[in-house]
Amino acid sequence: MGLVKTAEEIHALRQAGRMNAKVHEQVSAALQPGVTGVELEQIALRVMKEMGATSSFPEWTDFPSAICVSVNEQVGHGIPSKTPLREGDIVTIDVGLSYGGMHSDAAATYPVGEVDESAQRLMQATKRALYRGIAAARDGARVSDISSAIYLDVKSAGYETVRHAFGHGIGTALHEDPQIANFGPPGRGPGLRAGMVVAIEPVVTAGMRYTRTLDDGWTTVTVDGAFAAHFEHTVLITEAGPEILTRASSDTDPVGDLENCGELALTVRTDKLGPIHVRRMKEADRAAMVDLVHRTMDPILMEAWGRRSQPNELFGDPSAEAWVCALDSGEMVGFVIFVMGASLHVNTLVVSPSCQRTGLGRALMTELEGVARRRQLSAVELWVQENNATAIAFYEKLGFVVVGKPYFRTLHMRKTL
Ligand code: MG
């Protein structure tokens, strides 16, 4: 259950993942009206052969073809056919391949020519849900945190997830434990650990979630004929966050960039200073963060506590996450450090005086609230010095209220979600 891979296995999994992305690139490049599933399978087989990889499907699932090609209302396990694809179709290509004793598994739904807006929306929502699921695949999280992140995102887009389609662990076998449902509450199931590799794969329908299997014994279709979409990536969980192993360079993340694991894609536009980019903190950011906190917080702390801020107060919590805000020039103009438990706790939020009244602080807090909601946390909380009137007014405007009495001249503020 939930095997942590060795360094050699991870090396092979990365290779198998890159190869899978390559197959997707080549197959999707050939997608146009008139091409058949069988022709797409031939392309996939050729690309796999050139790289020294083999399809995982016949060996591991008895599936009769090298790839799955599922069209429109076909939910999955479509057998490549000689029927030409038509303009307006959407087609899911699912590729499982084996290389160096390791498997990779990835699927995507692609448009054939121009597709109508409802099909586009369905594809976008499904891909987005995949990235939400990936963002939840973190060291220390539980399996159903992925399920819940996917499900909430799909439901919020007005769609349904197919209940019998599961993500799964992957490695020396195509399908390993744990199973990853695309629905359900967070916080359940086995714990996720750095070094585990999982295939995350929401299957989403535009109509009812019920499916049936065709007479070929493989192809599942929606019972009501509504279109279905399916996106899947093989993901390595690392201490620094999820690493998508099957991602092609042309595969754009609908939520954030890869470094940010899909959870942070924030650029705040300001008239005065141009765009302010928000990204995850790197080790090299520490000095600028300390400098910024001295410049902004020390006067307040001197007045409240009679001492300056301490770097270990910023970086002492290993479970904390930090985002930094920088101008195009690279100059750091703010940061936020926070921890997620039952609620999201903002440890430190600092915005440089030059960026006050630009909307940066509000944008950061809105993004954090979104993170907390997606994780189904109960509240956003923070502590603020009672002499920091600007900050108190700012948080009150955002809906925070003071809880309890001041403690060492510090107020506890909370926004229930
Ligand atoms: Mg799979």
CATH class of the largest domain: Alpha Beta
Give the helix/strand class: alpha+beta
- Give the CATH topology of the largest domain: Creatine Amidinohydrolase
Question: How many strands in all?
Answer: 23
How confident is the prediction overall: mean pLDDT?
A: 89
Strand content: 25-35%
CATH architecture of the largest domain: Alpha-Beta Complex
CA-atom Rg in angstroms: 24 Å
The general outline is elongated
Distance between the termini: 35 Å
Biggest sheet: strand arrangement: 16-17-18-19-20-21-23-22
Low-confidence segments, given as residue ranges, are 257-263
The kinds of small molecule bound in this structure are: magnesium ion
Helix percentage: 25-40%
| SS field, number of helical segments | 9
Major β-sheet annotation: 8 strands, mixed
CATH superfamily of the largest domain: Creatinase/methionine aminopeptidase superfamily
Give the total of domains: 2
